[in-house]
Design a protein that fits this description.
Elements (H helix, E strand, L loop, with lengths): L1 H19 L9 E3 L4 E2 L4 E2 L5 E8 L4 E8 L2 E8 L11 E5 L5 E5 L5 E5 L15 E4 L5 E4 L5 E4 L7 E2 L5 E4 L5 E2 L1 E6 L2 E12 L5 E6 L2 E5 L21 E7 L3 E8 L6 E5 L5 E7 L4 E8 L14 E3 L7 E3 L3 E3 L2 H5 L7 E3 L19 E2 L6 E4 L4 H10 L3 E5 L10 E5 L5 E3 L7
Parallel strand pairs: 25-33
Antiparallel strand pairs: 1-10, 2-7, 3-4, 4-5, 5-6, 7-8, 8-9, 10-11, 11-12, 13-22, 14-15, 14-21, 16-17, 17-18, 18-19, 20-21, 22-23, 23-24, 25-26, 27-28, 29-33, 30-32, 31-32
The structure holds 2-acetamido-2-deoxy-beta-D-glucopyranose (6 copies).
Pfam family, one: S_locus_glycop
Function: Involved in sporophytic self-incompatibility system (the inability of flowering plants to achieve self-fertilization).
Catalytic activity: L-seryl-[protein] + ATP = O-phospho-L-seryl-[protein] + ADP + H(+); L-threonyl-[protein] + ATP = O-phospho-L-threonyl-[protein] + ADP + H(+)
Length: about 425
């Protein structure tokens, strides 16, 4: 009796896996000007970690051109026509004579629904030998005959940040590499949340929702983001790289050799989620998410307040400060923040000094200034001499601390991490 049972099981499993992979018609990793991708055909990256093709949403009533993980087809990492879905899978993907990647609607006169080029001018000069390739990083790269990059999907992110991809901005060209959330689990059109680099002062990454800042990573401190001490716990898997030059401010990560596949998602609730593929269970494991707790909620304790989730009362004031309105704080309304107990002397007769805060997420750096070359002692001297300077810290914590960040005006969004062992 045991034998037929085993055979039956194998048969059912084989049938299930055949059903689970309907779009098996991969046609290599490149698309040339003489080829086209239609219906359920896909491009597969070398090694087949990623696929490019059409995928359905809203009960197969809307279709999008996208890139997904081959082992996890529901995990779409990039979408071309986010705002203009096709109503059927009769799309045609081509590399145009002008050297653009285009999506046409076969059910509507082959109208162009999406193009990698914003120049839709019919008179666009011909670009011969253009090729689109889905690379093994998941980057879709369009090159001309000489191999020069015409366009790449990594410079036009959707809601997902992958290894080798940058978020940030080019200060030379003004190009911005930012994420935007989907509108819903089944709707890839841009939602309310954006993940962007604020390149002013000490650069840091922010989540914005409808013109309001909701979350900050804190500035880069040479090792990690000041507000994400957990980063040190997965350094064995990823290598982090922060670039701040006159040309570019950007952040990227790489998978170390042998590390499992990973991604960082800005989800539809405005939460950043770092996920790692668990081969054993065949599912994504959530490694980190931010905002992590109520102290990560931007400006939770107001100006000059300090948030601490492990305290019974979450909001406190920096030493030397008291609630601006005792009555409001009594009612747990901390939005008014804290005020100085004693006005600054500003050089007149001396007497001013600093209160030391350790192991905190540094305050919002939007109105800060950085001098990477100054020493910490010089930084303190400058801050004390400038009546507008409210705080200072090292810009880089390595080797005992170097460089100088100076804050001017209100100090907003300071929090104790609650992860003392990591600070
Ligand atoms: C999805 O489409 C199928 C077939 O057209 C239909 O029977 C089903 O009710 C639809 N489901 C939803 C949630 O609209
Ligand atoms: C649309 O494009 C496809 C592929 O290039 C072609 O076979 C088809 O004839 C075109 N249809 C129309 C209406 O032009
Ligand atoms: C579009 O392409 C045409 C022809 O190559 C060129 O003259 C025009 O400047 C381009 N427009 C833009 C906005 O790039
Ligand atoms: C976003 O991520 C958070 C944290 O992992 C999770 O609680 C929340 O349900 C997610 N939202 C969506 C829409 O998936
Ligand atoms: C909290 O205090 C601020 C001023 O500090 C005030 O504008 C706001 O209305 C108060 N919120 C509530 C819910 O009372
Ligand atoms: C301090 O700020 C005020 C107002 O923004 C400005 O007028 C003044 O020049 C600043 N002082 C210094 C020393 O930067």
């Amino acid at each position: 009796m045991a034998m037929p049972m085993t055979h039956l099981l194998v048969f059912v499993l084989a049938l299930l896996s055949a059903l689970a992979l309907p779009s098996s018609a991969a046609s290599g990793s490149t698309l040339t000007q003489s080829g086209a991708l239609t219906g359920d055909q896909t491009l597969a990256s070398p090694g087949d970690a990623f696929r490019l093709g059409l995928f359905p949403a809203s009960n197969r009533s809307r279709w999008f051109l996208g890139i997904w993980f081959t082992v996890s087809p529901d995990t779409v990492i990039w979408v071309a026509n986010r705002d203009r879905p096709l109503t059927s899978p009769s799309g045609v993907v081509e590399v145009s004579g002008g050297g653009a990647l285009v999506l046409r609607d076969g059910a509507s006169n082959n109208d162009t629904v999406w193009s990698s080029s914003s120049n839709s001018s019919a008179s666009a000069a011909a670009v011969d030998g253009a090729v689109a390739e889905l690379q093994n990083t998941g980057n879709l790269v369009l090159t001309d005959a000489a191999g020069a990059v015409l366009w790449q999907s990594f410079e036009h992110p959707a809601n997902t940040f992958l290894p080798e991809m940058r978020v940030g901005r080019s200060l030379r060209t003004g190009a911005e590499w930012s994420l935007s959330s989907w509108r819903g689990a089944d709707d890839p059109s841009p939602g309310d949340f954006r993940y962007v680099m604020d390149a002013r002062g000490a650069p840091e990454l922010h989540v914005w929702s409808r013109g309001r800042k909701t979350y900050r990573t804190g500035p880069w401190n040479g090792v990690r983001f000041s507000g994400i001490p957990e980063m040190t716990t997965f350094e064995d898997m990823f290598e982090f790289q922060f670039t701040a030059t006159a040309d570019e401010v950007s952040y990227m990560f790489r998978n170390r050799d042998g590390s499992p596949m990973s991604r960082v998602l800005l989800n539809e609730s405005g939460v950043m989620q770092r996920m790692v593929w668990d081969r054993a269970s065949g599912s994504w494991s959530n490694f980190w998410s931010g905002p992590r707790d109520q102290c990560d909620s931007y400006g939770r304790c107001g100006a000059f307040g300090v948030c601490n989730v492990v305290d019974a009362v979450v909001c406190g004031c920096i030493g030397g400060f008291a609630p601006r309105s005792a009555a409001e704080w009594y009612m747990r309304n901390t939005s008014g923040g804290c005020a100085r107990r004693t006005p600054l002397q500003c050089g007149a007769g001396g007497g001013d000094g600093f209160y030391v805060l350790r192991g905190v997420k540094l305050p919002d750096t939007h109105s800060s200034a950085v001098d990477a070359g100054a020493t910490l002692q010089e930084c303190a001297r400058r801050c004390l001499a400038d009546c507008n300077c409210t705080a200072y810290s090292a810009a880089d914590i390595r080797g005992g601390g170097s460089g100088c960040i100076q804050w001017f005006g209100d100090l907003v969004d300071i929090s104790m991490s609650g992860l003392r062992s990591l600070n």
